[in-house]
Specification:
The chain is α/β, with parallel strands linked by helices and 297 residues long. Helices cover 39% and strands 18% of the residues.
């Protein structure tokens, strides 16, 4: 039994796609199952404040993604491809909620990988009927982002301006492709949780943040160099709730403007907050997740 200052939960390790995954379970055993997936360079602990507010009514599952926290680390950069991340998510759902569909919540890279699963939910036998709703925070689908960028580059001046602004916010994507230097910089800048919080502008940082960030470079290098299969369809019939922090330093609100083209059941909420909105505004995030799940049950 693992006790947090907010609530009690249990922890177990399950077998993912070639790595061990550290999973936290908390909340009401018979409640709707909510699976929360964190991003870079976080661990499942970034969700604790949100889980504490959901735990009375929901069964909450949050796991350290591969390379982060107490989960296993892939032996090569190839191991960070989105296909492996989706396999990990499927493993968590199969092990922890084999007979009940889940409500996904993803942030940052957790949102990007969850989008992959959502876009496969209508065709992949492992995911058919397994995802009831999806709440996406600060992490567009790789395919949706690419489609938005293409359309914007060919559109009017306002759209091209939005694209240029977003590319300016995305400078680190190229910086992370440089060998060795990003590792050195991250180890120095994130050398302890206090330094990490100051540098990232986040109220949360795990003790393992420097190591997790260095490992997490594999996400950018494996998936942003043209890797991974092309997905034919960007459409999903899964109900999606989009939460957009308006002061996100990494993603501008415009990147989501085309999402209604692909998601018929889309609900959007803009929040005056920064990137780590689940930590800065846990009451609001928990309420939005709760209301959305209840409305779509």
């Amino acid at each position: 039994m693992v006790f947090d200052r907010h609530f009690a939960g249990t922890r177990r390790f399950i077998d993912g796609d070639g790595v061990s995954l550290n999973v936290l379970e908390a909340g009401t055993p018979d409640g709707p199952v909510v699976v929360l997936v964190h991003g870079f360079p976080d661990t499942h602990a970034v969700w604790l404040a949100t889980i504490a507010r959901l735990a009375d009514d929901f069964r909450c599952l949050a796991y350290d993604v591969r390379g982060a926290g107490k989960s296993g680390v892939p032996t090569s950069q190839e191991g960070y491809r989105l296909s492996h991340l989706v396999n990990d998510l499927v493993a968590v759902v199969d092990a922890m909620s084999p007979n009940r569909p889940v409500h996904l919540v993803g942030h940052d890279w957790g949102s990007i990988q969850a989008w992959e699963a959502v876009l496969m939910a209508g065709s992949d036998p492992r995911l058919l009927g397994r995802i009831s709703t999806y709440t996406s925070i600060s992490g567009p689908s790789r395919g949706h982002f690419a489609a938005w960028a293409r359309r914007s580059s060919r559109a009017d001046w306002a759209r091209r301006r939005d694209l240029a602004r977003q590319l300016g916010h995305s400078w680190y994507l190229l910086a992370f492709q440089v060998p060795a230097l990003p590792e050195l910089a991250l180890r120095r800048l994130l050398r302890d949780p206090q330094s990490a919080r100051r540098f990232l502008g986040s109220g949360h940082a795990a003790p393992s943040v420097a190591r997790d960030a260095v490992n997490g470079l594999g996400l950018y290098r494996a998936n942003l160099r043209g890797g991974g299969p092309h997905r034919r369809s960007l459409r999903t019939d899964v109900p999606v709730q989009l939460i957009v922090p308006l002061r996100d330093p990494f993603l501008t609100p415009a990147v989501y403007d085309d999402l209604p083209r692909y998601v018929p059941q889309l609900t959007r909420h803009d929040i005056d907050a920064g990137h780590w909105v689940q930590h800065s505004h846990p009451d609001e995030i928990a309420q939005l997740v709760s209301d959305f799940v209840r409305a779509k049950r």
